[in-house]
């Protein structure tokens, strides 16, 4: 392909010959410039989207934030549910320890040892509740309650151990 250049300053016309390689290189360079400009506009749009007062753009940013917040909430709830399962397993283990303590108490000849019952402090009796998702506060409360129960059982089993030791010494 030949391109003829004519100028007012030049007395003669100039011609430029372009081969297929020149055309492909020019098209590639033009494509790269367009892609770079598009990427720059996209990056600037995302970078400053919250600051631009365009309602459509603000809705997109808000939707992205809500999606991320919902994903985080689901992740936290999933972890809380997993910890609640672990809490249930710990409570089951505590029940097994209570049964063991009661068997040991009967072997030691100790009467009226109820390891599974906390000492009376008054108030309403607990009710059975259907399974539900625990909030972080509920989970913390259940964990504190389980910790207190474990301390209580530990104390009672310590007393039982000392009584068994006394019987073995006699």
Draw up the topology in text:
Layout: E1 2-5, E2 14-17, H1 20-47, H2 55-108, H3 136-169
Helix pairs in contact: 2-3
Explain the overall architecture.
It is a single chain. By secondary structure, this protein is mainly α. It has two domains: 47 residues; 102 residues, no CATH class. Helices cover 68% and strands 5% of the residues. The chain is built from three helices and two strands. Strands 1-2 form a two-stranded antiparallel ribbon.
Brief summary of the model shown:
The protein is mainly alpha-helical and 170 residues long.
Considering the chains and any ligands shown, give keywords for the structure:
rod-shaped, two-stranded antiparallel sheet, mainly alpha, 3 helices, about 170 residues, about 5% strand, 2 domains
| Shape annotation | rod-shaped
Low-confidence stretches: none
Residues in β-strands, percent: under 5%
Instruction: State Rg.
Output: 39 Å
The neighbouring-strand order within the major sheet is 1-2
Question: Pairing-aware structural class of the strands and helices?
Answer: mainly alpha
- Tally the structural domains: 2
Mean pLDDT value? 80
What's the total helix number?
A: 3
Percent of residues in helices = 55-70%
Largest sheet: 2 strands, antiparallel
Sketch the topology as an H/E string, one letter per element: EEHHH
Determine the N-to-C terminus distance.
116 Å
Number of E-type strands:
2
């Amino acid at each position: 392909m030949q391109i003829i250049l004519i100028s007012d300053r030049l007395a003669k016309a100039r011609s430029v010959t372009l081969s297929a390689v020149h055309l492909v290189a020019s098209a590639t360079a033009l494509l790269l410039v367009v892609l770079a400009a598009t990427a720059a506009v996209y990056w600037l749009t995302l970078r400053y989207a919250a600051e631009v007062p365009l309602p459509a753009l603000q809705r997109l940013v808000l939707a992205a934030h809500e999606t991320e917040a919902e994903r985080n909430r689901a992740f936290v709830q999933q972890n809380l549910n997993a910890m609640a399962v672990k809490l249930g397993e710990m409570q089951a283990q505590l029940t097994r320890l209570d049964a063991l303590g009661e068997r040991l108490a009967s072997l030691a000849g100790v009467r009226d040892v109820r390891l599974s019952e906390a000492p009376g402090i008054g108030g309403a009796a607990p009710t059975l509740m259907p399974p539900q998702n625990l909030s972080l506060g509920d989970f913390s409360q259940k964990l504190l309650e389980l910790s207190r129960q474990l301390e209580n059982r530990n104390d009672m089993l310590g007393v039982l151990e000392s009584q068994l030791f006394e019987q073995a010494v006699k």
